[in-house]
Amino acid sequence: MQEEATIIAGGEFRLFGVLHHPTASGRADVGALLLPPFAEEKKGAHRLLVDLARELCRRGVPTLRFDYRGTGDSEGTFTDFTLSGALADARRAIAFLRERASTDRVGLVGVRLGGTLAAHLARETETRAAWLALWEPITSGRRYVQMNLRQMRIREMMTAAEGSRTGSVGVWEYGGMGVTGSGGAIPKTDEPIRGRPIPHTPTPPHSHTPTLPYSHTPTPPREGYDFDGYWITPALHAELGALTLPTPRDEGGPPRVLAIAVNAAARVSSELEALASTYGSAGASVAAIAVAAEPFWSLQDTVPVPKLIRATADWVVPRNSPLAG
Q1: What is the mean pLDDT of residues 147-166?
Q2: Predicted model pTM
Q3: 155 SS3 class
Q4: Helices 83-101 & 234-242, crossing angle to 10 degrees?
Q5: Domain that holds residue 255
Q6: Which helix (H) or strand (E) holds 17?
Q7: Number of domains forming the structure of the chain
Q8: Is residue 151 part of a domain?
Q9: pLDDT tens for each residue of 22-37
């Protein structure tokens, strides 16, 4: 097994990726593209995606991990990140994997927001997804933003109560979604939020990665808000608020779909069950399962979840498959 740091060129931003090659050479039966979560959740999922890529690779599946524009080691700043841009980045990553793995068949694994994006990609005729695996996909972007902002407000209130900061905590509405701020002022809902964008320092390339010239430095927007350390522009805010899981196409969608819930109770939510049902009604072979684990995407420390890796890999490539070696 080989791991190759690589650059995915050909678009507005050059993307950083890691391609995991199986030991056997030649044309692969299928490849796998891993779509990471959004913002801070990406940190909690990073190690698990590395583990999954290596496990799939051991089973003969060439696997590509990549960073969206403005995130990780890819070109750009976070204010360049949009959902439409992330979808375009994923399409380029699929084309790159098809060429490098010499296969037309690519399956998608998406985590949280990455799962929602993967579902949108799988609906596109050009994607021709071999299969679709979703780890706790975001079913409502609006609710996702509201929940995270509520958690931010609680943390700010706790910090203020401890006396480590001055000023009161105010909450206002921005486009119908609660946004936390300080100072106690509550702007009118039709007024834009203005503030100082959070400075972004690109991650220095590691010794084993290609060097990316960060030449694309557009003027950061003056409007937006802080989302747990990430500056959300009005355009991204609007995209997140409108984001939902798409309805699968009646024909031409992924023939196999895996939906995994991750929670301490090991319970598949009604939303995930409904999602699985819609794919089943569209003719896909569907599995909806739950893995007992804490929500790794929201934890500060990296937590291994071997059951999640094993369940996904066993579904993609069963142990008794010739591809598993």
Answers
A1: 76
A2: 0.82
A3: helix
A4: 80
A5: 2-141+243-324
A6: strand 15-21
A7: 1
A8: no
A9: 987 667 799 999 999 9
